[in-house]
Amino acid sequence: MRDFETLDSLLAQRHSCRAFLNRTVERALVERVVETAQKVPSWCNSQPWQLIVLSHAETNRLRDRFAAVDAATPNPDVTFPERYVGAYKMRRSECGWQLYDAVGVEKGDRVASEQQTMENYRFFGAPHVAFVTSPAALGAYGILDCGAFVTGFMLAAQALGLASIAQAALAGHASLVRDALKVPEDRQILCGISFGYSDTAHPANSFRTTRAAVDEVMDWREA
């Protein structure tokens, strides 16, 4: 029961951090996070994930390259969702408006909205960013495994006092990342994970998203 409570507490504490302190993370601590994340399950124990982790200086260099990116024209290796509908659209919108309310972006203010969007490409001020890739040949199964790894990474980071946010927005500009980090063509760039120490005083970190009730996501069947 204690193990369950610890896991439940970590999941409850973890959130998508959108403002970081300018404080670097020791490599040894990052290696502990990765070593723990490595323990997640994968199909046939294939462990398809490869992680490219950038130092503070390398993160800043990549941040500079993202400064002029056109957020409206993504070109990801893995196709983004066609659309969000129903409950999925509602949950996505709720999260977006929570963020806008927290940072003072008013409805209809396109300039402020675009400025907040560009924070994605500043990595929300994080001192480090990691990119998760998977072999293209493994398709959906490799992507599923890497999803487990991303979760393991973020929970391990939380347990060690680090904050993080997984970002599809960065993978949306796969060609930029591939060129900058020399990612082989046979690997798909799935997401970036910005991480570091949370700026707990920043309004972008003042809200928490809700979760659907169990009966909304679980269909229990019995004879």
Helix content: 40-55%
- N-to-C order of helices and strands: HHEHHHEHEHHEH
Please give the number of β-strands.
4
CATH class: Alpha Beta
Overall pLDDT: 97
Distance between the termini: 30 Å
* Rg for CA atoms: 18 Å
Walk me through the structure.
The protein is of the alpha+beta class and 223 residues long. The chain has one domain: NADH Oxidase. It has nine helices and four strands. A four-stranded antiparallel β-sheet has the order 1-2-4-3, with helices on both faces.
Comma- or semicolon-separated keywords:
223 residues, alpha+beta, NADH Oxidase
Summarize the structure.
This protein is α+β, with helices and mostly antiparallel strands and 223 residues long. The chain has helices at residues 2-13, 27-37, 56-66, 86-103, 110-118, 139-159, 168-171, 174-181, 214-217; strands at 50-53, 128-135, 163-167, 187-196.
What's the layout of helices and strands?
Blueprint: H1 2-13, H2 27-37, E1 50-53, H3 56-66, H4 86-103, H5 110-118, E2 128-135, H6 139-159, E3 163-167, H7 168-171, H8 174-181, E4 187-196, H9 214-217
Antiparallel strand pairs: 1-2, 2-4, 3-4
Helix pairs in contact: 2-6
